[in-house]
Predict the structure.
Amino acid sequence: METKACYFEDYTLGDVRVTGGRTITEADFVIHAGQTGDFFPHHMDAEFAKTTEFGKRIAHGTLTFSVGVGLTASFVNPVAFSYGYDHLRFVKPVFIGDTIHTEVTIHDKRDTKHPDKGMVVERLAIKNQNDEVVMVADHLLMCQKREAEAVTEAASVLDGE
Amino acid sequence: METKACYFEDYTLGDVRVTGGRTITEADFVIHAGQTGDFFPHHMDAEFAKTTEFGKRIAHGTLTFSVGVGLTASFVNPVAFSYGYDHLRFVKPVFIGDTIHTEVTIHDKRDTKHPDKGMVVERLAIKNQNDEVVMVADHLLMCQKREAEAVTEAASVLDGE
Amino acid sequence: METKACYFEDYTLGDVRVTGGRTITEADFVIHAGQTGDFFPHHMDAEFAKTTEFGKRIAHGTLTFSVGVGLTASFVNPVAFSYGYDHLRFVKPVFIGDTIHTEVTIHDKRDTKHPDKGMVVERLAIKNQNDEVVMVADHLLMCQKREAEAVTEAASVLDGE
Amino acid sequence: METKACYFEDYTLGDVRVTGGRTITEADFVIHAGQTGDFFPHHMDAEFAKTTEFGKRIAHGTLTFSVGVGLTASFVNPVAFSYGYDHLRFVKPVFIGDTIHTEVTIHDKRDTKHPDKGMVVERLAIKNQNDEVVMVADHLLMCQKREAEAVTEAASVLDGE
Amino acid sequence: METKACYFEDYTLGDVRVTGGRTITEADFVIHAGQTGDFFPHHMDAEFAKTTEFGKRIAHGTLTFSVGVGLTASFVNPVAFSYGYDHLRFVKPVFIGDTIHTEVTIHDKRDTKHPDKGMVVERLAIKNQNDEVVMVADHLLMCQKREAEAVTEAASVLDGE
Amino acid sequence: METKACYFEDYTLGDVRVTGGRTITEADFVIHAGQTGDFFPHHMDAEFAKTTEFGKRIAHGTLTFSVGVGLTASFVNPVAFSYGYDHLRFVKPVFIGDTIHTEVTIHDKRDTKHPDKGMVVERLAIKNQNDEVVMVADHLLMCQKREAEAVTEAASVLDGE
C-alpha cells in the first residue's frame, strides 16, 4: 500500500482513472449476506429469483458499492479523508459471474467553509464486463490545500516558531 | 423473512423505526477488508492507527454503511425497490467493539415521472452505543402507488381483460 | 430484529409457519467445513463424491441443521428460551444448489416441573425446492406461562410490593 | 483424513474417546451468524447481552453443536453413516474465549429392522475448559454388521459369483 | 486431533503417505484473496483471465501451498516442530474445481548442530485429480532424537534428579 | 491494481522496498484454520497453548507466509511470473495482535537456461512491530529480458513479419 500526499491543487478536473476488474462470485454474495445480515431472497434464494424480472439472483446494492469503492483503494493519501457520498444510484443489476471495475472522474472541486481545505468530487461509475454502468456515486473527498499549508508554515516563520 | 406489501400511501411522514443492535467486531473489519480488498492501514494496522488522531483502528465507511443498512432489512416489500442513496455522510468513526443500530425516519415523499410510482425518502441515522450518530444517509425507495394499481385494474376491466 | 413476547398460552397446537428459502451454495460448504473442521470427503472432495451413491458432494448434517434452524430465527421472544432438540433425523441429502426452507408446526405443549413454565414442541421439517423433506427435528422451547406471571404479580400486590 | 472400516461389532459399550480442544472465538460467532442468518442480540449485541442474566454474549446453540460434532470428525468410516441425533440439550452457555472439547461414549447398541445393520448410540458430552458440560446429544450411527457381510459374501460364493 | 510422539529415529527414508483430497473452489479463491489482500487479476478477474495463456483464473500459489500443507496436518507430534521449507516450486496451475491431495515422502534425514535433534526432510508433492504434480516443496521437520532423550534421562538419574 | 512492466534489467541488486503493515488478528487464525483444515491446538486451543513454551496461540506458518507474501502484491508485472521460493524459515512465532510487514531486497540476479529470461531473487524478511524478523524466504521471480525482446523484434523485422 503506497502512501502519496495528494493535495486539493493536485486534482485536475476531468482526469479519469480506471481500476482493475473483479469478478463478483456466489461466494461474495454469501459473505456479504453473512456480514450484513441481509438475506433477502433476491440475493440468496435461487428459486425465488427465478420468479423475478431478472430471473436470477442479483447482488446486494451494498455489495456492489463496497467492492466498487474498494477497487479504488489503491494508495493512502495522508492529506485527505473521505467525507461522504452523494447521488448513489443502482442503475443495473449485478449477477453472479459479472466482472466489475470502477472509473473515477474528477468531477468537481469546490471550496469549503474551512479555508485550508477543499472538496474534491470524484464521480464513480461502476461498470460490468459489457461496459454497462451498474452503479454511480459521487465521492466527496475533503483535501488539504497546499497553499494553506504554505500559509501556515509562513505564519509559523513569522511567529518565530 | 416476512413479506409485506407496503405501498407509497402506506408510508407516513415522520414515522420512525429503530432496528436492533449489532456489535462491530475485529472479525467484521477483517471480513470486510477481505471482501472489498481495502486494506488501508486505518482499518488493518493497529500500529499505524496508534499514530492517527483516533489512536486506534476505525471501521471502513463501507462496513458501517453495509451493516447499518443490513440492519434495516427486516421484511420484503414486493411493491418497492431500492433506487439509491443521497447525502451519505461519515459523522464519527466506528471502533472495534462499538455497537450500532439504525433509526429510520420517513423523511419525505414525492411524486416521480412515473404516475404509478412515488419516491419515499427514508432518513437513516446509524448510531453507536452512546447514542451518537456515526453515519447518516437518505435512502430512496421507489414504491408503487396503491391508487395506480386500482386505476390499472379498472382499466383492465374496461378493456374487458 | 423484532421483539415479541410469546407466552406458553400463545402457542396453538397445529399452527404452522413457513420460512423463506435459502440456496445452499458451494461457499456454504466451504465456510461450514472451515468453521467445524469437518473436511470429510463427502462434503469437500468432488472426485471422491463421484464414487459414492449420491455421485456428488452432500451438505454436512450440521450445515443443513444450522441453516434450517437459522431460517426460523425471525423474532426475539423474551419469555422463552431454547431447551434442546429431539429426534433430529437426516432424511435426504442436500446438494450444492438446493434451496431449502423450514416448516414449523406447533406439535405439542406440555407442563414441566416448573409451574410457571411450559414446554412447546416445534416440529421442524426442512424441505428442498422439490418439497421433499431433507431433515426433521423437534425443537423444545421452554416458555413462561402468562397465568404464572399474573399469579406472581398478584402475589406481589398482596405482598404490598 | 484417515479411512478405517469400523463395523457394528467393533464398537464396545462404555468405550470413551476424548477429542482435542477448540477455543470458541468472537470470529466464530460472527461467522456462524453469517452462515445461519441468526443475528439474535444474545449472540451479536454486546450492549444487549449486558442486560441478560449472563451479562455477555453467548454462543448460538447451533455453533456449539456444529463445532462440538466437528471435533469428533477424525476418521472416515466407510461402513457407517450418521442417522441423526436424539436428546440434544443446551446445558450451559458458551462464552467468547471458552475452549470446548467433546467426550464420546459408546452408550448403546441396538438392532434395527435391517438385519445387516445395527445402530450405535454415541453419547456426546461437550465440555468447557472448567470441565463443565455445556451440551449433550446422542448421536445415532447406523453401522454395517460384519457378520452380515460374511453372510452376503458366503451367499455370493454359493451363487457362484 | 490425535497426538503421537514421532522421534527422529521413527522416520524411515522412502516412506510415503498420501493425504485425502480437497476440491479447490471459487470460494477458496475468494477467501484466500480476502485473507492475503492479493487480488491479482489472474486469480480474481475472469475476464482478464480469458486473455492469459491459461484462459481461466488460477489459484494463488500461497493458496495451493497452504491447503496442500494443511492436508498433511493429521496428527500432533509433540517432539518435532516445523523448521521451514526449501525448493518450493509452482509446477502447474490449479484451477477452480481441481481436486488436490499431497504425497509426503521421507526424502532425507540429517544431523544438526544440536546433538539431541535431527532434521527430517519430507518431500511434498501436491497433485491434482489427473495425478499431475502442481507444486513441490521440501518440508524441514526438526525432530528430537530418542537416543538423546535416553541420554538426558540417564544423566538425570546420575545427577540424582 | 496498477500494471507495470518490470524487466530483468530493471531490477537492481540491493534495492529494498518495504510494504505497509497488517495486524494479524484472532479472526485471521480462525479463517486460516478454516481454509487449510489445520486445527492444530498450537493455533486454535488457548488452553493447550498456555502449556507450551510460548504460553499463547501462535500463527500457522502458512498464515504468516501467505499474508507476508500478500503484502508484497502491489502491482501486476506482465513480463514476470512467480517461479517458487527457497529457504523459507520460521524464525520467531507470530502472536494474535502482532503487526507484520515485509521487506523485499533484490538479493540476486542470474541467467537461466532460457536466453530470453533471467531469475531475480527477492529476499523477503517478514518483521513484527518490534522490527524482529519472524520469517524469511527467497522469492524466485522469472523475468523476461528486455534485450531478448529487442532481439525478437529485430528478428521479426528481418523475417518480414
